[in-house]
């Protein structure tokens, strides 16, 4: 039987592989981006679905209707793991989107790296940084033309 700790470790390692590809590997092989953009998030999403569906309905007082219900859900170890896998999947998917969009607007990989690290560590913080930077970049491009 696989323990929650083992699943936690495997999910984290899979996500880390995706982040390393996004941050450090060259983008001259577009097929390589499929791994962090789609394949790993898809696998993590399936893992989340399995964990959530197996445990969501078994938790007394758990749900999404109030903070107390969410706390009850996350008080269960398997649902806490599911929540963590949810973060891993969505943050990596968003990181893949940021990398592709940043490449499209010609944002340097040196500037992309801290944004991707922020997305890896703090999810929405990295997304907000990228969106703000992109808005400023486009404004600068329009002013120049």
From TrEMBL:
It comes from the Bacteria. The chain crosses the membrane at residues 7-26, 38-58, 79-99, 111-132. The keyword Kinase does not apply. Coiled coil: none annotated. Keywords: Membrane, Transmembrane, Transmembrane helix. Pfam families: ABA4-like. InterPro entries: ABA4-like (IPR025461). This is DUF4281 domain-containing protein.
């Amino acid at each position: 039987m696989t323990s929650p700790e083992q699943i936690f470790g495997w999910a984290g390692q899979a996500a880390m592989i995706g982040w390393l590809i996004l941050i450090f590997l060259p983008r001259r092989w577009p097929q390589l981006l499929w791994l962090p953009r789609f394949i790993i998030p898809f696998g993590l999403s399936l893992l989340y679905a399995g964990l959530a569906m197996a445990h969501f309905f078994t938790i007394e007082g758990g749900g999404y209707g109030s903070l107390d219900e969410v706390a009850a859900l996350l008080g269960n170890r398997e649902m806490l793991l599911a929540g963590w896998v949810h973060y891993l999947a969505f943050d990596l998917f968003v990181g893949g989107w940021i990398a592709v969009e940043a490449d499209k607007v010609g944002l340097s990989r040196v500037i992309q790296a801290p944004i991707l690290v922020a997305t890896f560590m703090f999810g929405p913080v990295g997304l907000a940084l990228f969106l703000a930077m992109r808005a400023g970049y486009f404004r600068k491009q329009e002013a120049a033309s």
